[in-house]
């Protein structure tokens, strides 16, 4: 397989790792994101709900990181989700300046349905990998994430979230 590292005459973009990661994510997400929208959610809302199924009561800063949404934008999304009855916001009992976000019963029911759908979608995607379970690519991606996050000393590490630790270590 030719790539720009081995062959400088090869086309750059179709062989560039960051393009390949983004294109694979986009292609893999398209069908599921369409399903999310049929359930009345926007993709960022789905990401928040998925994160809260793992760590209900997360702070906005943690949700922003794992939902991959800029914090000020996420705050607006959470306010809208609160108004729709999907989440509720509460002050942290130990520090009233912090806000924690929780799924409502309605939000939890929808999130749990969508997580089950996401798991089924993932199984279909993973069938295309050698061995049919995708464990090798997941292990490789987890290792890449750990490596990249270790190189950013001012960023919170993976170990800042037990749920994230479990997801990364799941192999």
From TrEMBL:
Gene3D superfamilies: Winged helix-like DNA-binding domain superfamily/Winged helix DNA-binding domain. The keyword DNA-binding applies. SUPFAM superfamilies: Winged helix' DNA-binding domain. Transmembrane segments: none annotated. Residues 150-171 are annotated as: Disordered. Residues 14-150 form the HTH marR-type domain. Keywords: DNA-binding, Transcription, Transcription regulation. InterPro entries: HTH_MarR-typ (IPR000835), WH-like_DNA-bd_sf (IPR036388), WH_DNA-bd_sf (IPR036390). This is MarR family transcriptional regulator. It comes from Hoeflea alexandrii. The lineage of its organism: Bacteria, Pseudomonadati, Pseudomonadota, Alphaproteobacteria, Hyphomicrobiales.
């Amino acid at each position: 397989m030719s790539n720009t590292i081995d062959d400088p005459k090869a086309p750059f973009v179709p062989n560039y790792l960051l393009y390949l990661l983004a294109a694979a994510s986009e292609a893999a997400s398209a069908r599921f994101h369409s399903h999310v929208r049929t359930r009345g959610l926007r993709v960022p809302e789905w990401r928040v709900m998925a994160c809260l199924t793992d760590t209900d009561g997360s702070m906005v800063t943690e949700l922003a990181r794992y939902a991959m949404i800029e914090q000020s934008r996420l705050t607006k999304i959470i306010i809208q989700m609160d108004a729709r009855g999907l989440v509720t916001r509460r002050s942290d009992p130990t520090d009233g300046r912090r806000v924690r976000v929780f799924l409502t019963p309605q939000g939890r029911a929808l999130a749990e349905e969508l997580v089950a759908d996401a798991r089924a979608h993932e199984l279909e995607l993973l069938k295309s990998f050698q061995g049919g379970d995708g464990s090798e690519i997941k292990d490789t991606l987890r290792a890449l994430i750990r490596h990249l996050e270790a190189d950013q000393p001012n960023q919170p590490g993976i170990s800042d979230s037990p749920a994230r630790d479990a997801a990364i270590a799941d192999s």
